[in-house]
Fold this sequence. Notes:
two-stranded antiparallel sheet; TIM Barrel; alpha/beta; 17% strand; Alpha-Beta Plaits; 13 strands
Amino acid sequence: xxDTRGHDVGDRLLVEVAQRLIIHMRQEDIVxxxxxxxxxxxxxxxxxxxxxxxxxAETIAEKVRQALNQPYSLSINEARYLGTxxxxxxxxxxQSASVDMLLKQADVALYQAKGAGxxxxxxxxxxxxxxxxxxxxxEAALRQALERDEFQLYYQPQIDQHGELIGAEALLRWFPSxxxxxxxxxxxxxxxxxxxxxxxGQWVLDTACAQIKDWERDPRTRFLQMAVNVSARQFHxxxxxxxxxxxxxxxxxxPTRLKLELxxxxxxxxxxxxxSQMRQLNALGVSFCLDDFGTGYSSLxxxxxxxxxQVKIDQSFVRDVPEDExxxxxxxxxxxxxxxxGLQVIxxxxxxxxxxxxxxxxxxxxxxxxxxxxxxxxxxxxxxxAMQT
Length: 389
């Protein structure tokens, strides 16, 4: 541009690039020009976890790339200019590496970006770049999963103290067409982060309600209750109550057969709004269970305000009872707190008879776990022992 339009136009381009960079930075970040057409951005406070820091850096880099790809108007009477941006990234922590070393690493990554076809970003650390690439591929596939009908609900039976089937928890599974099953621990956080949890969560709710309707046709399953997990992002949507109402109406089921499981991260934010929405759904007949109970900041001060019907003892406390004295004490405390609030209790992750016996001795009368049955697709439910009676 300096050669064809003059240095004054080239300078205006550099000024415009700098302004666009600054707009996308936080107050604590640093933007500077090294020389020529190269700029350096220093992002601070991205946390101690390397992968999380890399994800944040990659997100900002993509925003910068898109901003710098927009057309430039550098003179009044001339057409707008288009340019692309190559970005090299490296991570640092404290003073473990010199400034010169970090700049060299970023420069190497920059040339990797150019070698990859330009107009992209690359990390200096190959392993980190591989992790970022994998994440981006997973996100792209996740965006198409609903259209491709790749999701499936598995159902884990819930059993009472007599061994009778009382309900099930609906658990989401993803089977991409080009690979094996993806762990929920891998794709659920990504769905939350990208907002895809909203359409996916709606699919789960609709599918679970349809299954409740199907259960109504069988005397053995007519009175089962279905537990459906609801994410914080889902629950805090302004139209969440309306979406549940639509699912109930579309399936034409008894609302008392639906139980929504919330985590403490859901109910701790905007408690007044949470209570209001829960009460609206309670009025329809929908019940609530507080999931992963005991792993967060459970306290009577907010629990007594929530219209809960049940709490679920987290499997991390069930795993080592009755051998571990600390877990024994925690489970007994949860049972005492629940009794004081008039709440039912169900324990998850029950894998041994000793765990089940301990829980029963401490007045916990509902369970789910591998001792009884693993999560199964609905067409395998007929093989469940509790379904044989």
